[in-house]
Amino acid sequence: MTDVNFMGVAPNFAELVVSKYSLNIFQTDYSQRIFDECKNDGSEIYYFRWSNKIYAWPSRGKESSRPIGFEPVEVSLQNNPDVYTKVIQQSVINYFFSTGRRPHRQKYSSVYHFKIDNSKTRFNISKLSYIPYFCFSVGYFIRGDRNIVYISCWREFRRRFDVPEKEIQDEGIDTSSWDRKNGVIVGSSRNVKLYVSAVRGEQQKKVIEEKTSNKINEFDHIKKSFNKLLDSLTNIKVVDGAALVKLNHFTIPNSNFNDLFISKPVHYYYNNATTPGGYDQAVSNLKPYTYEFMSSKVFEIVAFIPSQHSGSCENFILKLKAKLGSIFHLTKINIRYINVGSNRDDHINEISGFGHKEFDLALFFLNYSDKSQPLMKSDYTRLKAKLLGKGIPSQNVLMENVRQCNDFALKNISLNIYSKLGGTPWIINKDDKSALELVIGIGSSIDENNDRTIGFASVFDYQGSYILGGCSPISNMSSYTEKLKEHITSILSEAIQIQGVSPQSTIRLIFHLFKDASKYYEIKAILKAVENFADYNIEYSLIHISYQHPFKLYKNEGRDIVPRGTYIEISEGWALLSMGGKQSAPLLIKLDPRSTYKDLYDLSKQVLYFSHLSHKSFQPSSKPVTTKYSGELAKRTSELMTVPHWDTDMLVQLKDRVWFI
């Protein structure tokens, strides 16, 4: 494998071929008491619970006597893939332990990692370290009538402050407001930005991150790791006399996997006109989709002008207004300027005097330090909460962007403003189908107290195209099932009424989830909701769109970008979808087997299409709008709930506005 030149698309996973497809181990019926006793018995037996059984085998692959109370059992890759693969996984883990490494994993994760002890691949910016870790995962793919054991691997760099906090403070840096875990400062993005800025290490950081994210180096490390593992297969001890005999790392397509390509959707503008090329130019030339609706309106915008930057901000606003006119054809815009000092209470006092929905949008300016404030002290969150309480969405602009005033920033901010004012710049086509499709995205955010906030975002099938519908949050998991049932009922009722869907017609509900579906949450809500629509044939699909998984793709050994739209079905109900760009990790799309509509390719195509519905940037997003918007909605709602007396009911009045982007 050493001299193989990987042309085309290659993954970071390889097939592990085992000499035996069945293994003799031990089992007993599960009880928590027995399982606890087994885990604490101190023997070299590994215990694994699966379903209602406890399985046991020698942890180092050597023969051992049968544990008391257990009976012999044969497990096979075909009939017991989860148990069989767990045996192989533990054999690999034990091998790494025998070489002096210490693999471990986060709770509920399938990925193991250990630190790479090589000073040549470790980078430092004074007290900040970029530490390399080797990561791997062992699992199985279902490929038709046979299962395949795989191992995936990669290297990643984790940022750490591996010194006592006092050493950082001795550099003259105030760490009192830094992010912490269990009282210890962490290498969070916020802490890294604060530290790098304090030590003037921006250029050094740029150089390091170019090296650590280099795709050619990434793939070279994967190749070398598989070569070392291949040379060590005889040292990996498996139970029952089995052995690892081969490691197959191939480009795709191969005998196990094939790749397909999904083209981008067609964008429609005013009067359903369409044109190729950049979206900003298309909107300007053809007018935005909601041109007729928006052009007749007069918009009132209030701009808070910091007195110390008044000239720069006023110049920026004039250019922004020009962009709203030239790209989006908004010419009836009145802007009221309010001069404020550096004290954010000036903003709050002014907002207190506003009438409800007196303005269509508020514009305020922040310094980078404002965005880096701890959440509980965030002026940004206080201002947004105060304005939303008055029914006014807001757009913040960093002073760094004001000073640069580049065309890219102006275009994207004008796009954000147009969307927050209620406009739709473009919609996208959908394939002709006999069923009406309603898509619900469900995203979440976890705050520093581990409380979860949920957000919903809906996309409607409208006259042969896809268009974004309403977005709404709920505050916690305890009300999730009931709120989801209400949300499903509401959009079904609205769609049937607006589109005149006749009884006996097929309606397809598609859910884009932030997690695997649960019979206690999503399934329960769906079944309850559809009880009210017995006259219709309702199908549903649940797909988990995962961003955290052990799979990566490379083209020409990392020299080229994997084309956006590359689709690879890797297992039954699992597919990888490349979103292009510099990231080597594609989306992992997992179809829940309880779904009644199961066309994985069609569902994945829809995911790609929905990444073109985001109105946060003129560039297509790396995530579908369903999970992107619902996740951002949940995050912003979670932040707002830190403001005293804030009530999520205040957001009902803005459910048709993307106030959170």
TrEMBL record:
Pfam families: Piwi (PF02171). GO terms for molecular function: nucleic acid binding. Residues 384-642 form the Piwi domain. This is Protein argonaute. Belongs to the argonaute family. Long pAgo subfamily.
